[in-house]
Amino acid sequence: MNAAMNSFDWKRAVGAGVAAIVALGGLWLVFAIHAAGQPMLALGALALIAAGLYVYVSRAALAWRYLFPGVVGMLLFVAFPLVYTMWIGFTNYSSTHLLSQARVRAYLLEQTVPDEEHSLEFTLHPDGDGLRLVLAPYEAATGAQRFVSAPLKLKGDKAETATMSALPADQALAPALSTRDVLAHRDALMALKLAMPDQRVLSYAGVHEFGPSAAVWRANPDESLTRLDDNKTYAPNNTEGFYIAADGDRLQPGYKVAVGFANYARMLADQEFRGPFVSIFVWTVVFAALSVALSLGVGCTLAVLLNWEALRFRTLYRTLLFLPYAVPGFISILVFKGLFNQNFGEINGILAAVFGIKPAWFADPLLARTMMVVVNTWLGYPYFLVLCTGLLKAIPVDLYEASAIAGAKPLTNFFKITAPLIVKPLSPLIISAFAFNFNNFVLVSLLTNGRPDFLNTKIPAGTTDILVSYTYRIAFLDSGQNFGLAAAISTVIFFLVALLSFANLRVAARNARKG
Known about the structure:
Residues 281-504 form the ABC transmembrane type-1 domain. The chain has three domains: 2-66; 112-215, Periplasmic binding protein-like II; 267-514, MetI-like fold (Orthogonal Bundle), CATH 1.10.3720. 55% of the residues lie in helices and 12% in strands. The chain is built from 18 helices and 13 strands. The strands form three sheets. A seven-stranded mixed beta barrel has the order 2-3-4-5-6-7-8. Strands 10-11-12-13 form a four-stranded antiparallel beta sheet, covered by helices on one side. The chain has a two-stranded antiparallel sheet with strand order 1-9. The model has no long low-confidence stretch (mean pLDDT 85).
């Protein structure tokens, strides 16, 4: 027996047990996702769980055990959001088209209105620790049929059902509560359903009445809906995503439908949309290019000056110049927003005292864009200052000594020695900085919020908006909240940034080969 126990592979048995528990938990998760109406997500979850079990159970996939978590993380947090965003870009998903057609249809069919003709008056009567609810027809004559419930607690707003029965003529009841006392139980009464002897269910219909509810809509075999009070029929329109009547009247809410490349075509074909979109795209490129060029110019110039050995207090200067990089960006942006205030800002105070002018930094499009570039240069130059300082330390001093013997000037040294030697290692970082500024949402949001706005546009768009802030306004700030259009623009931004990243990798690879 001891030999048998010694030969039993406990490690393998525990592993098999853990795998079985994970498999059962995974199947439960897959079924839960499917039951929530997401079959494609359920299929994806099943594939990931099956792949994970295979990788960690099979000996053939031993090499994948260390890579699998990273692959899963990339699929869940990179690939899935990207694919989902691209899919939304091919739909009309918006604040008016949030639900599927099935859910919109179910929502409309669930709508009811009180049936006032068959409503009954109710009263509440104390009975021990509870209250009895009594129903009677309005203006009931002596001997009219009344109904009574068992004693009810009527606390809170938890939904419950009370069974009503015929009130015997000889049953004595305590005096009814006053209207004020009835209103104290209003929340509980609103959640209460009354089951009548004739199988009807009555709901709270007012301060003094309960009544049955009548359906608003009737479903037709052709998937259309007819409103019962006027027999007006609304048919689903899968092009626009609405239930639409013959006279063009639409029902709210709409539902999601596939629109193909309509959102992308709108960027090019709709003149009222294309105008601000093209302007914002051009400004995004110009803003990113100017920010990088000026930040690089200022940072590199300061790095060269601070590399001068004869300069006293170089460490102090370097520390002071590095401060903008140490202060959180959002704080610096808000400080500059106060400095550029037209009426109370220090910058306009100085300009008014010296030149007698007070520029409208936030109202004039050109001045607002200039302000953005200035602030972004202040935030970005320390990054290039640090980079260039490190690269300058790697340049052999012998080159400058030989240049000095030849009588070269400082500018000649910079353009003939310094710039050619630092431009290659800086190239990928410059491209990365351009990609960062291409999506610099924080600066736009905190400094100008995209304003001043363009005039006479279908969708609010600002002259200082860049593509990412424009997309945010479309998705979350526009009254229509057009998520489909925002997703299409986000997809375009993704491919633009992907091209920049590809260029970055190519430049880095070419520099590595030449190095």
